[in-house]
Protein 1
Amino acid sequence: MKGEFEFIGDIRKAFPAPQGITGIGDDCAIIPQQNGWDTLVSTDMLVEGTHFLKDDITPYQLGWKAGAVNISDIAAMGGYPTGSFLALALPKKLDSDWENEFLRGYGDISREYGFPLLGGDTTASPDGIGICITVFGKAPHGKSLRRNTAKAGDLICVTGTLGDSAAGLEAILKGLPRSRETEALIGRHYLPRPRLTEGQQLAASPGVHAMMDISDGIGSDLRHIMEESGLGAEVDVRAIPLSEEMTAFCAAFGSDPVRLALEGGEDYELLFTVQPDSDPDLKVPHTVIGTMTKETALVWKGSDIDYCGYRHF
Amino acid sequence: MKGEFEFIGDIRKAFPAPQGITGIGDDCAIIPQQNGWDTLVSTDMLVEGTHFLKDDITPYQLGWKAGAVNISDIAAMGGYPTGSFLALALPKKLDSDWENEFLRGYGDISREYGFPLLGGDTTASPDGIGICITVFGKAPHGKSLRRNTAKAGDLICVTGTLGDSAAGLEAILKGLPRSRETEALIGRHYLPRPRLTEGQQLAASPGVHAMMDISDGIGSDLRHIMEESGLGAEVDVRAIPLSEEMTAFCAAFGSDPVRLALEGGEDYELLFTVQPDSDPDLKVPHTVIGTMTKETALVWKGSDIDYCGYRHF
């Protein structure tokens, strides 16, 4: 089997997007409509044993999170969600309480973020649970924030704090004792809150050039903006925003906060670039962590480790 | 775990479609646009061990068939395809030839039927292969053929012949000797050709009231039109169109052709209803197999078996 990004590269070469459409290579496809809006579409597959362990997540949390992972791609373009489709492959031994609770979690996030379920598919699975969600959104024509539009000299920014979800996962997998801190981190892992409003505000802010959501950790995600924009980046690891809970967790259990923040993934925060003179006017709370550069390399200032982020295969 | 249709019924109750949108319960969702067209969307999940056995289908055939299953839902509404999204969960042990051949099959059908790949997702699977495709189409506003619009007295019609795919599957699973007949049937199983043009012509024909594609066998599929339309049906099993190859196959190997035709599924032919006086004017080759009735029961004339069609769980 090929590496994930090599395989995606092959698919992209074999399936060039039709004229006017942004196809493979960003958080969402962008399909212009005749009414002055673009349609945004993203699809994500969650597989038991790869993305989650059934006994470690409640069906309510899984339903919420499956929706969150997808709506985060709409947030990443600065779009407005319009609807969703849900395909489920379920083992026969699942009980109907599991199904009801999954639907309750999905229902809660779809109502809160405004992406009603419009259709789907259900089928039996001989092995684990498979979930595939396709989510739709819209954005004013040409106004979606993409990965390939960063400029050299742009400041690199993130919303929120990074690594909380990864620390929460570590607490779950290692069965660490629960405290106020670990519960908060676990909550960020199970019930992420994508930055939909912030994404919309950033897409409407002058000087914001490129954006994506942080799903694999910026050690991986930032490389997509670099590659798509043909640029490099310099990131000061000392500037990475870390929560108090995460810092306390790492101190207590001997974990490396920077590694969790850069390689852990599943933060569903936003990573964006902005021209320096526009930064002071941004209404969205954020942290500047570095600068886009002309050299096509990723330099971590303040560390001699080459952080890479999560790879699916 | 609940039965498939009970579970879908629960989802439908929990997620009512927004005003103006046709959501769960038909081949595609129908989303009106401002340009005089409706957007059609359908999603299908194919799971190794449920929908296919990896050693019994080539990756090229699987790529073609995954596309066919989906585009058949657009055909079922009389729509025009516009694009597709492909999510793949793949075991790490797959070789890259498999991936390339799968993409070649998907590429061939997507070019032939006109649904370019616009995006997707790739991920690792700890067990078998999972494929989720979301396909888009369009139809003039309000002109899609739905399941809930049959009228009492309508003739029930099908395109092509039924049961060929099921006979082909039987030949594969039982390892029956290959002949011209079995090869033709196996070809219909592996490389189905959805009735896209025919669906478009039927949607533009006066008097055609309801339509869906035949994926589970009409023993199951016709019940959807009955339930959605609040009607019953009388079908003459002696009128079911059977191919010469399928009849010869059943004679040679002792299979029941009517059971294969009504319960086998995966024909990807069209099942539609038309008012009797419009039938002679239809340009699309078809066979009349029965009549929609006011009684909410399915009566098989010429047989005392209650055929049911394929159920996923």
Note: The first strand of chain A starts at residue 29 and ends at 32.
Protein 2
Amino acid sequence: MSKTYNVAVVGVTGAVGQTTLKLLAERNFPVASLKVFASQRSAGKKVTFRGEELIIEAVGPDSFEGIDIALFSAGSEQSREYAPRAVKAGAVVVDKSSAFRMEPDVPLVVPEINGAALAGHKGIVSCPNCTSIVTVMPLKPLHDAGTLRRVIATSYQAVSGAGVNGIADLEQEMRAWANGEAIKPTHFQHQIAFNVIPHIDSFAEDGYTGEETKLVNEVRKILDAPELPVSPTTVRVPVFTAHSIAVNAETETKVSVEQARRAFDAFPGLKVWDDPAQNRYPMPVEVEGKDDCYVGRIREDFSTANALNFWVVGDQLRKGAALNGIQIAEDMIKRGLI
Amino acid sequence: MSKTYNVAVVGVTGAVGQTTLKLLAERNFPVASLKVFASQRSAGKKVTFRGEELIIEAVGPDSFEGIDIALFSAGSEQSREYAPRAVKAGAVVVDKSSAFRMEPDVPLVVPEINGAALAGHKGIVSCPNCTSIVTVMPLKPLHDAGTLRRVIATSYQAVSGAGVNGIADLEQEMRAWANGEAIKPTHFQHQIAFNVIPHIDSFAEDGYTGEETKLVNEVRKILDAPELPVSPTTVRVPVFTAHSIAVNAETETKVSVEQARRAFDAFPGLKVWDDPAQNRYPMPVEVEGKDDCYVGRIREDFSTANALNFWVVGDQLRKGAALNGIQIAEDMIKRGLI
């Protein structure tokens, strides 16, 4: 019998936590036992895993005794407080918050790209931001093919990237509209129904949002290209699930559209949907619920030398968060790191 | 008494035609008489102008006798057939279709930018594509300040850019969703509710859409910069009215964020909404119904020298179409060209 593991999911009531639970079952993750944690508010409520009811516990200092793998998606504050305790108790933590991502001794991993970095872990491995993951997936094969020189990324991000409250906000605003009532935002800064909001996370002095700065820093760290010039614009759109990113990428050596298409297609976790004649290109409603990221609209950028435009879409709850987290754990098991 | 004109609106039942009618009244355009035309299908129906009922006529070869100014927004086919007849009958045609835009002897005009080009008209003046207008409005002051070197434009386009059918499609899809019914697109290639579609107009061999190629060619013609490198991505989003464009612009000489802000603010028809601390930036739901275009998120692009990122939003039925058309006519009157 192959080895199984005691697993904890922290933040199980969130959008990413719920997807994590679904994927642990879907992928037959080698679970020996599963503990599910959330805030005090959800303690005592139940979730179902493989047909079995599990009672949600409030996370606390002693929650991680005997846990081998702790999958955190409860936000940075909870991660800062409890991830070190989980490590102390002997668990490996896969953290989906931004708390530790830029710490030099914490690997920031997309397994298809830099799984090798897992070897250097000190107990915590960070999962990148959802937009960073979806953007970096096609960048890696392009980087390998022609060495990236500059990247301009412009996003169309789904409300579930902001968690269950984001989903609820879009839903209730749309129902209000359908009922002829006034639209009142409850979660986002502004109405998201029939709108786009060029503001995700908080603003810094330089005019960029946290989401935009994360994209720059995380793409650099994942690709191990610390100086790569990246220019980001991140925007919320009224889509439930799956982030889309319009990418403009310049390379040191020319990569033709055909070469890029082949490189994308050969890359694990990436698929090419690019058949304009058949109106075939990736879109959120078709990518929602899928594990892979999808690339289309691949075309030469005639405005400069050695540049391509393309469009990538990924389910940010899956590959952008929960799936990538589980893939990190699977990769660590395969590498004998857990 | 100042001069008044016999005006015809061709395509009065469309989204742009309806807005044209509204704006002629709103702006007290010097109308002596108004004729309203549409296809045979709408003939006999009525529209209201300044409290008066007008009967819609089917456009035909003899529709333009005695007309001074004909405002066309009935699509390229109708423009190709009837605009030359209107000119022959003595009218000046302001055409909002793409039919004549790239013809060398047809001025393509945004009055704030290149009204002087009107002097060369031979009877037809073209109004640029809605996305081109909203994009070029902030580009002009930036071009004047530092000479544009390269532009990357990524759009978030409202459904009313596709006319009344686009509006109806989003509405009925959203109502179906609210009623728990299946969503079936009637106008767009795919579902637009809760989705984004990276496809506007038809695809060419090079992988770009007609909308994208229009943006490149029209921005160059309006700015009189025939070689300006422009890299476009155009995307439909579930917004009713107002297009948003994320613009990355490189200039020959450095333009600071402060200089750009001042240049934008001083430019007629352009306003700066850029106060991150107050969550203030342009968005479609706030710009809908406004005449000006609004710029925000102005920030230095740290990925290359002399580049800025910014975000511009404009009501594409107003400044992007109907308003710009009427402004062309007003400018021609002022210049003594009509």
Note: The longest strand of chain A covers residues 148-156.
